[in-house]
């Protein structure tokens, strides 16, 4: 079992990540000191250790970067590499290789904070990928290509699509994606209520908000206008 790392190298102005080259190939094959690891890589190693995974595949370390023949041969295998991984670790909040995965101290840029959000207009913005609840009442954070450049990276599409399971570390929380679900840390179903009868009232305001924003009619936990799609199921 091995993990893979999905990350952003960063713009040309950023310091490049630690790389394997013809010059250091022999040294890297013998071992790489933790102290020399780029912060994204170090965090990924720590995550693997906590999960009991002994191996991790990182593109800049596992492909000889100044050897075109090796790059072409290994790039052709990347689909199988991500598809065969036990877990894909996505450093979604790091703008480059030095941002880190865990222990991020920076929140998304204030310009990405929305107050009294018009959900319809935000949802139609192709740059907006996820809306997260913000720190204040009525405030939301946009997870987009500006606040999280990771999602603008071309390689990310196949890395997320092919990996059997991925944990995405964003600036606000973690997201889990696998073949059967996409969930966040703030999933309502995992929250506790002292009285089960409070379930409907506790979420009524949220239902009303999205009902008005999407112009849909709530019906027993689903939407009347999309009921036939919401009830579809498939065998896996």
From TrEMBL:
What residues does the Heterokaryon incompatibility domain cover? Answer: 2-159
User: At the top level of its lineage, which domain of life is listed?
Assistant: Eukaryota
According to its UniProt record, what is one Pfam family this protein matches? Answer: HET
InterPro entries reported for this sequence: HET
Q: What is this protein called?
A: Heterokaryon incompatibility protein-domain-containing protein
Species assigned in the record = Lasiosphaeris hirsuta
């Amino acid at each position: 079992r091995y993990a893979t790392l999905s990350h952003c190298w960063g713009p040309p102005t950023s310091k490049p990540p630690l790389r394997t080259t013809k010059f250091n190939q022999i040294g890297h094959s013998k071992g790489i000191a933790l102290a020399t690891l780029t912060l994204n890589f170090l965090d990924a190693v720590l995550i693997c250790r906590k999960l009991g995974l002994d191996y991790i595949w990182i593109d800049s370390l596992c492909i000889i970067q100044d050897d075109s023949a090796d790059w072409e041969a290994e790039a052709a295998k990347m689909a199988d590499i991500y598809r065969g991984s036990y877990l894909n670790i996505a450093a979604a909040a790091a703008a480059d290789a030095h941002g880190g995965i865990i222990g991020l101290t920076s929140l998304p840029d204030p310009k990405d904070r929305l107050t009294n959000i018009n959900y319809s207009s935000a949802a139609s913005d192709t740059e907006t990928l996820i809306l997260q609840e913000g720190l204040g009442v009525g405030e939301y954070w946009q997870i987009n290509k500006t606040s999280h450049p990771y999602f603008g990276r071309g390689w990310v599409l196949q890395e997320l699509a092919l990996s059997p399971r991925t944990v995405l570390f964003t600036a606000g929380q973690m997201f889990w994606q696998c073949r059967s679900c996409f969930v966040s840390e703030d999933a309502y179903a995992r929250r506790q209520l002292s009285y089960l009868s409070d379930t409907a009232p506790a979420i009524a305001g949220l239902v009303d908000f999205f009902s008005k924003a999407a112009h849909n009619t709530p019906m027993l936990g689903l939407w009347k206008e999309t009921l036939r799609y919401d009830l579809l199921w498939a065998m896996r």
